Amino acid sequence: MHRFTAILIAASSVLWLGASSPSSVARAASSPPQRLILTPSSPSTLFTFEGLYPQKRRLCDFKQRKPLRAKYRGRLELVLRDDGSIGVIDALSFSNYLRGLAEVPSSWPEEALKAQVIAARSYALQSLKATQSLSGSRGYDICSTDACQVYRGAAIELGAFGERWVRAVESTRGRVLTYNGRVLPAYYFSTSTGLTRSSFPGGTPQPWLPSVAGNDGAAPLARWTATVTLDDLAAVMQASEDWPGGAITSVSQSGDHVTMTGSGHTVTKLRSTVENDLNSEGPCLFPKTYPSRTGSAKGGPLPQTVPSSTYTLTQKGGTVTFSGRGWGHGVGMSQYGANFMAAAGSSATAILKHFYGPAQITTVREPGEIRVLAADGLNLARIQIEGPVQVTTETGSVLATGNLFQVQGGKTLTVTRGVGPALQPVLEISPTVAALTAEPGGQVTITFTNSRSARIALELSGPSGVVVTTQETSYVAGENSISLPLRDSTSAQLPAGSYTATVVGFDGLDHVRSTPVAISIAAPAPPPVLPGVKKTDNNRFLAVVVLGLIVVMLALAMVMRRRRARTSRT
């Protein structure tokens, strides 16, 4: 009985099909795959991907790796690691890789986008050359995090303002930054501390990395403020093993060093150490407090407890205030600086000239393919396939997955059909009103908030279904509004009655619908009633007026006839 149950479960959940013969089925079953290869048969094929990381004990929620949600083009390879986890490699065209970068908002000015693309293309090509000897053994060319360049796949080109980013990629095809004939690793970062840096700490200044004005003084993190209580600071520093324990009663700063005193101890640390400890342990120990929700120059949230080590520190009572500037390593191009320069009329060439000095813009031939480490360390992956694809193992055996399947790590890769992505969408759309009344032939305007940038449309429905849907338009995150004329698809005025308006959005990953807003189109107003005349007498009054007009016209006709008769007798 137990043996029959095991066979039945295996047959229903995992299916291996040989490439050509029954013997290949046996080989696939006896040799579980160490690698699955998803090869698209069409360039339009998309993989909606969901990856889950193991949750580690004794690790706070802040440090747990968050689920991965993405859409990918190209050939996906799921690799079983020695520790039983899953690595995911996306092998795709170099152009599609650039289209999938998520380094700056696609809503920024196009010249800023072009500058970003040229810098990113340069960085990627230089990375390919630098890691060429390692790519074969490790299986990929470049990572997908901010340790390399942030790659999020096809959701970038499909989402809000995606066509603008694609246009920037295609209009600069092959263009890179070079110096003395060498493609440069064109570093870039978010926001400067006022000036950019010529090298990383301990590095050698480079002539193509001049220290220049960041031109980003209006950026959200050009200036920021973080407040930390002495009690929280003591807990954080002790958890980081940079404070022996007990209360901290005073804090002072001298140059690059911070001195903490209390409980019979005096400890001096580099201000970068204090920064790193607060960023690592602050959100872990006090998740509701750090990072600040209001510490940026514009009153918005901070990305980290202390965004940079460029700060001055002051103590007042039991509170320490960090007043700082910038976010990022500060070497190369300030992305916000490029944004503001483009908005002021600078071209991509002028922007790159400002940040990279003597570097030249050169056109080179792009490689055909790049292998991106999309994820590593997963214990579970769920995939939905959109388009024709073949799924094989490293031995060439074909796996019949259907368009939905799940892959689990362990001693082998276990594949389960019919289980696809299941995480809730990140995009949220909330109308600010529940009901509206409109006049016939007018229009309605719905105000709403969207949690992230998205393509938005408004759908109007009546008793018989959808009446009309507006064209999708890209909106940045925040409070927005969208209007809709109260006419059908033929431009005919909608009749009076009850309708619903729903805001629908797409962020490149998920289609999301808001709660409906009730729309009431009022009936046309009745004709005005003349003063002194009752409504019930309206028709009678109008009849009398018309009859009087007829009598007058007949009388005029008779007078004209008599005049003509007299004229003819004379």
Task: Give an account of the 3D structure.
The chain is α+β, with helices and mostly antiparallel strands and 570 residues long. Among the domains are: 93-192 and 343-366, no CATH class; 224-324, no CATH class; 429-521, Sandwich (Immunoglobulin-like), CATH 2.60.40. The protein is built from 12 helices and 34 strands. The strands form 9 sheets. Strands 26, 28, 29, 30, 32, 33 and 34 form a 7-stranded mixed beta sheet that branches. A 6-stranded mixed beta sheet has the order 7-19-6-5-2-21. Strands 4-3-20-23-24 form a 5-stranded antiparallel beta sheet, with no helix packed on it. The longest helix is centred in the C-terminal third of the chain and has 32 residues, at 538-569. The chain is globular. It starts with a helix and ends with a helix.
Total of helices: 12
Q: Let me know the number of strands.
A: 34
Oligomeric state of the chains? single chain
Which class do the helix and strand fractions yield? alpha+beta
Could you tell me the mean pLDDT? 89
Instruction: Using the alpha-carbon principal axes, give the shape.
Output: globular
Uncertain parts: 1-30
Radius of gyration: 34 Å
